[in-house]
Amino acid sequence: MILKKTGWIFLSILGLLFVSFFVYANLKPPTLGEKLYMAHPTQIVVMLVPEKMNMADSASLIQHIKKEAFVSSAILNRTSHILCVTFDPARVNRQEMIHNIQAFDSNITERIITNPGPQCPVDGALYTIAKFKYALNLRK
Fold first, then answer.
1. What is the secondary structure of the chain as a DSSP string?
2. 17 in a domain, yes or no?
3. Which CATH number is 30's domain given?
4. Is the pTM of this model over 0.70?
5. Do the domain assignments include residue 60?
6. Given 71, 81, 95, 115, which is the most exposed site by the fewest CB atoms within 10 A?
7. CA–CA gap between residue 46 and residue 82 (Å, rounded)
8. In a domain, 69, yes or no
């Protein structure tokens, strides 16, 4: 009898929490950034470009990258020799994107951060809550 009552109370509290979060998710419409990112998430790949690359090669590299439909943006900083490309991970994976860039010039390499330092463990949980909140929002 006590177990049955405890189960009913637990389910009631769980239901109340879900309804509360549902109401919270629908208090305001999602921002434009949430709509864009949650509906079509992007990934970024950072590459190191050889120092010997001139202006013409840089322009043709950017044209080579931007002709692909899955690329959102491509930016090349000639001073730091860094190429940043954002792309749609639903249409192409990271390795294919890197291979596509290296097809233009094999000397272009991925910039790998060796020691990112301490990272916040809360970010993953906050991102999961934001995705769940967006999924429950009826105003999108």
1. -HHHHHHHHHHHHHHHHHHHHHHHHTSSPPPHHHHHHHHS--EEEEEEPPTT--HHHHHHHHHHHHTSTTEEEEEEETTTTEEEEEE-TTTS-HHHHHHHHHHH-TT-EE---S------THHHHHHHHHHHHHHH-TT-
2. yes
3. 3.30.70.100
4. no
5. yes
6. 115
7. 7
8. yes
Q: What is the pLDDT of residues 67-107, one digit of tens each?
A: 888 898 899 998 888 999 999 888 888 899 889 888 888 88
Q: Domain count for the chain, please give it.
A: 1
Phi/psi at 77 (5° precision): -95, 110
Assigned domain for 23 exists: yes
pLDDT, tens digit (0-9, with 9 covering 90-100), for 11-67: 999 999 999 999 999 998 888 878 777 777 888 899 999 888 888 888 898 998 988
Q: Which residue has the tokens 């080579």?
A: 64
Answer yes or no: are the C-beta atoms of 22 and 68 closer than 8 Å: no
Structure tokens at 3: 């177990």
Residue in 46, 44, 48 with CA at minimum distance from that of residue 108: 48
Residue 68 lies in domain: 2-115+125-136
Q: How many CB atoms lie within 10 A of CB 36?
A: 13
Q: What are the CA-CA distances from residue 24 to residues 16, 29, 38 (Å)?
A: 12, 11, 18
